[in-house]
Write a structure and sequence with these properties.
The complex is a heterodimer of chains A (116) and B (409). Chain A has 116 residues and is α+β, with helices and mostly antiparallel strands. Chain A has a single domain (2-112), classed as Dimeric alpha+beta barrel (Alpha-Beta Plaits, 2-Layer Sandwich). Chain A has helices at 11-16, 23-39, 90-99, 102-105; strands spanning 2-9, 43-48, 56-61, 64-69, 78-86, 107-112. The two termini of chain A are 12 Å apart. Chain B has helices at residues 3-27, 30-51, 57-75, 83-92, 105-112, 119-131, 135-141, 146-162, 175-194, 208-221, 226-240, 265-279, 286-298, 300-303, 308-321, 325-339, 341-349, 353-356, 360-372, 376-389, 393-408. The longest helix of chain B has 25 residues, at 3-27. Among the domains of chain B are: 3-92; 104-168. Classes of the chains: A alpha+beta (116), B mainly alpha (409). The interface between A and B is medium-sized, with 23 and 23 residues.
C-alpha cells in the first residue's frame, strides 16, 4: 500500500535550509531520514520543493487563465516536500511520518495514495 | 468553572474507573456501561448546579448510570425477558446502602489484557476504560489515526461482549501469565511517554502519569505480587531521571552524563523500597530485574560510580527471561561500559540484523561504540541511521552533535 507523507514546514524551518548556522543540522536530519527510508526498503519516491515564494498558482476559469504569484493557500505551515512510501498499513506509515523532522517542527500529513 | 462542574469533574476523575469497572462487570458490556456513565456525568453537570453536589457523588453517578442501563435494556427487545432480573438489579445492589460498591477494576484490567483481545488494543483499552482517556489522546500517544483507534476500541468491546469474556480475576494457576499481560500493557503506556524526551508540550506529553497511576492500582489490588511492585519500581526509577534528561537549553543528556543530584530522591527511595519488598518473595521476574538494573544506575547517586559489571549480570538474567530487542541492546551497552568498546561491538555484531534494522537505540549505541574504537566510517553510517530513525528532535540534535564531534576529531 502506498502512502504519501506530506512535509509541512514553518517559515523558520524553511529559512534553516540556507541559514549558515542551521543548514547542516537541517539537511543532515532530512538526509538521514531519507536514507533510513531507503535502507528500510519502503521509499518509492519524493521530492523537496523550493519554498512558497517560488510558487505560482494557476486557475483557469471561463476560458481565461489567471496566474497568481505565491502558493495556493496562505497558511502558517507550507508544503516543503513529500515522500511516497510503500508500507503494509497506516500504522506503519504513521510510524515513518513521526520520524520525519517536520513532525516535530511543523507537521507531516499522511495520505493513502489512490489506487488506480 | 462552577463548583458543581468542578465537583462533577473531580468525582469523574477520581472514580471513573471504579464506576465503569463495576457497571461493565455487572452488565458484561463495556461499551454500554461507558455510554451510561457518560450520560450520568452529563446529567450531573446539568443537575448539580441546581440541587447542589450530593453527599456521595459516586453513588449518585452510579444510580443514574444504572437507571440508564436498565431503561436502555427495557427498550431493546432482547432484554424483555430479562426484565425481572433488571428490576432485581435495580432495587438490589448497593443503591441505597452506605457500603462502597465493590472494586472491579482489577477484573476489568484482566479483561482488557485477556489473551483473546488483540495485543495491540490491550493498552489503549485499559487507558480508556480504567482512566477514561478519550480515543484521540490515546491514538496520539500510540501514533495511529484517531479513527483507527476508535474503531479498534469499538471492535474489542464488541468482542468482549459477544465472546462473553469473564470479568474475573484468574485462578492462581493462571495468574502469573495473565498478570504479565496486564503489566506489559501498563509498561507500554509508560513507554510511549518515556520516548518523548522533549516532553515540554503538555499536548504531546505521553502517558507516564497515567501508567504510574495504573501501576499503583495494581500494587494496591494485588499487594502480594512481586512483579507488580517490580513494574512500579521500574517506572519510578525511570521517572526519577525524567528532568535530568534535558539540560537547561532543552538539549538531550544521556544517562552516563547526567548529574545524579538532579534525580528525584523521593522517587528513587520509593522505588528502592518497592523493589526490596518484591525481592522478599524470592521470585525474580522481568520487571524486578529491569528495576534492579535501574537501581544499579541509581546507585551512582550514592557511590559516584555505576556498577557496570553488576548491570551486565542483571541483563544476562533478564535475557534468560525476556530476550527482547531492548534488553539485548541494553546488555551490549553494559558490556561496552564494563568490558570495553571492543567487547561491546562484538555483542552488537552478534545481534540479528533484521531485528535491529529499524531499532534506533541499536544504531545510536553502534555509533557510540564504533566511534570510541576509531572506526569512524562505520560510526558515521550508524549515526546517520540513528538520526534518520529518531522521532525526538532533542535526540536527533544530540546525535548530530556527536557525529559532528567525530568528524572534527
Amino acid at each position: 500500500m502506498q502512502y504519501t507523507i506530506l512535509v509541512y514546514e514553518t517559515e523558520t524551518e524553511l529559512a534553516a535550509r540556507t541559514d549558515p548556522k542551521r543548514k547542516d543540522a537541517y539537511w543532515g536530519a532530512y538526509r538521514a531520514y531519507t536514507q533510513a527510508l531507503r535502507d528500510a526498503g519502503v521509499m518509492v519516491g519524493g521530492a523537496a520543493l523550493e519554498p512558497p515564494r517560488a510558487a505560482t498558482t494557476v486557475r483557469q476559469s471561463h476560458g481565461k487563465r489567471q496566474v497568481q504569484d505565491g502558493p495556493f493557500a496562505d497558511t502558517k505551515e507550507q508544503l516543503g516536500g513529500y515522500y511516497v512510501v510503500d508500507v503494509p498499513d497506516l500504522d506503519k506509515a504513521l510510524e515513518w511520518a513521526s520520524r520525519c523532522p517536520s513532525a516535530s517542527t511543523g507537521a507531516t500529513e499522511v495520505r493513502p495514495n489512490l489506487r488506480m | 468553572m462552577s463548583d458543581a462542574a468542578k465537583a462533577a469533574e473531580a468525582a469523574a476523575r477520581a472514580s471513573y474507573g471504579r464506576l465503569l469497572a463495576y457497571l461493565a462487570a455487572q452488565w458484561r458490556d463495556v461499551a454500554r456501561a461507558e455510554d451510561a456513565l457518560g450520560d450520568a456525568l452529563l446529567a450531573a453537570l446539568e443537575t448539580w448546579p441546581r440541587t447542589g453536589v450530593p453527599e456521595r457523588p459516586e453513588a449518585w453517578l452510579l444510580t443514574s448510570a444504572r437507571r440508564r442501563l436498565v431503561d436502555g435494556a427495557r427498550h431493546s427487545a432482547v432484554a424483555a425477558a430479562a426484565e425481572a432480573d433488571l428490576t432485581e438489579i435495580l432495587k438490589g445492589r448497593g443503591e441505597n446502602t452506605r457500603e462502597p460498591f465493590p472494586d472491579a477494576r482489577l477484573a476489568l484490567l484482566f479483561v482488557c489484557a485477556h489473551p483473546a483481545i488483540d495485543a495491540g488494543a490491550r493498552t489503549p483499552l485499559m487507558l480508556q476504560t480504567v482512566l477514561g482517556l478519550d480515543a484521540a489522546r490515546i491514538a496520539s500517544a500510540f501514533v495511529v489515526a484517531p479513527s483507527t483507534m476508535s474503531q479498534r476500541l469499538v471492535r474489542v468491546k464488541a468482542k468482549i461482549r459477544d465472546a462473553a469474556i469473564a470479568f474475573e480475576i484468574p485462578e492462581p494457576r493462571e495468574l502469573p501469565a495473565r498478570l504479565g499481560a496486564v503489566l506489559d500493557a501498563i509498561y507500554a503506556a509508560y513507554g510511549t511517554g518515556w520516548d518523548d524526551v522533549a516532553g515540554a508540550d503538555p499536548e504531546r506529553r505521553g502517558l507516564v502519569d497515567e501508567a504510574i497511576w495504573l501501576g499503583r492500582v495494581v500494587v494496591d489490588l494485588l499487594p502480594a505480587e512481586p512483579e507488580a511492585r517490580g513494574l512500579l519500581a521500574l517506572m519510578l526509577h525511570c521517572e526519577a531521571r525524567r528532568e535530568a534528561r534535558r539540560d537547561r537549553d532543552g538539549h538531550y543528556v544521556p544517562l552516563s552524563e547526567q548529574d545524579p543530584a538532579t534525580w528525584s530522591r523521593p522517587m528513587i527511595d520509593e522505588a528502592e523500597a518497592l523493589l526490596a519488598d518484591a525481592a522478599r518473595a524470592g521470585t525474580p521476574g522481568r520487571f524486578q530485574l529491569e528495576a534492579a538494573i535501574q537501581s544499579a544506575h541509581a546507585h551512582r547517586a550514592v557511590t559516584g560510580q555505576s556498577d557496570w559489571e553488576a548491570i551486565v549480570l542483571l541483563y544476562g538474567a533478564l535475557l534468560e527471561l525476556a530476550p527482547t530487542v531492548g534488553a539485548l541492546v541494553g546488555h551490549a551497552a553494559a558490556v561496552a561500559e564494563a568490558r570495553g568498546a571492543e567487547a561491546g561491538a562484538l555483542a552488537l555484531d552478534a545481534l540479528d540484523a533484521a531485528m535491529v534494522a529499524q531499532y534506533q537505540p541499536y544504531w545510536a549505541l553502534r555509533a557510540h561504540v564504533t566511534g570510541r574504537l576509531g572506526r569512524t566510517a562505520e560510526a558515521e553510517i550508524a549515526y546517520t541511521r540513528a538520526i534518520g530513525l529518531s522521532e525526538d528532535p532533542a535526540a536527533r540534535a544530540f546525535l548530530a552533535r556527536r557525529a559532528a564531534a567525530l568528524r572534527g576529531s
